[in-house]
Each structure stands twice: as structure tokens, then as C-alpha cells.
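Run log, item B.
One chain of 124 residues. Sequence copied directly from the ordering sheet:
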Amino acid sequence: QVQLVESGGGLVQAGGSLRLSCAASGLSFTRYVMGWFRQAPGKEREFVAAIMWSDDTTYHADSVKGRFTISKNSAKSTVYLQMNSLKPEDTAVYYCAARSGWVAVADAGRYANWGQGTQVTVSS
């Protein structure tokens, strides 16, 4: 049974930082891609970043490039999203997701497994 559990969300002032964590279990990690998505009220779910478990290949959305960094700790089966220079428009529920394959990595519909989400609120 696949389980993804996010943590680390909270309230932060603009310009601040947060690190989100996603603890994963039940996956065949060597074949999997882990992604972060976010969804703000009234908006569609948006791709943030992804990492290939086997070789650490990463891909970040243009909106967060240079500010957010996805990484992983294989020993802890955990994926992280380091978020720096946060802006009010980064406010959203952030979701961790897992899939196999790298094609169309930003397509939420291709991710089979999702966490429950963690709220990030950035005040101005």
C-alpha cells in the first residue's frame, strides 16, 4: 500500500523560507518519480517540481526556479521541497505525488499516488 505523508507547512512572512517533507512508503523507489504540486483556492492544481528517484534528475516549474529546490534522502525514503524567498502568491495547499516514468512529468493526471496535502500561507 502506497502512502505519502507531507509535513512542514505553515505561516511565513514574504521573503521567508519553509522546507516541506514527504515521507513515502510502499513504492518501488528505483522506478519512481516524486513530484510536488500546489493548489490555491479557486485555481487548478499546479506543478512545482519533480525528482527521479534513480538518478536525482530534477525539474522545476519556471514560477519557482531559483527559489525552490526539490531533493531527496533515500535512506529516509523522504522527498523535500526547500522554499526560499517566498511570495504571497506561493500560498496554496502543497501536495506530494508519485508515479512511474518521466514523460510529461508536470502532468498531474499521470501521478497515481497523492498525499493529503499541507497548507503553506505566505503573508505580505
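Observations after the first pass:
- The radius of gyration is 13 Å.
- The CA atoms of residues 60 and 66 lie 9 Å apart.
Flagged for discussion on Thursday.
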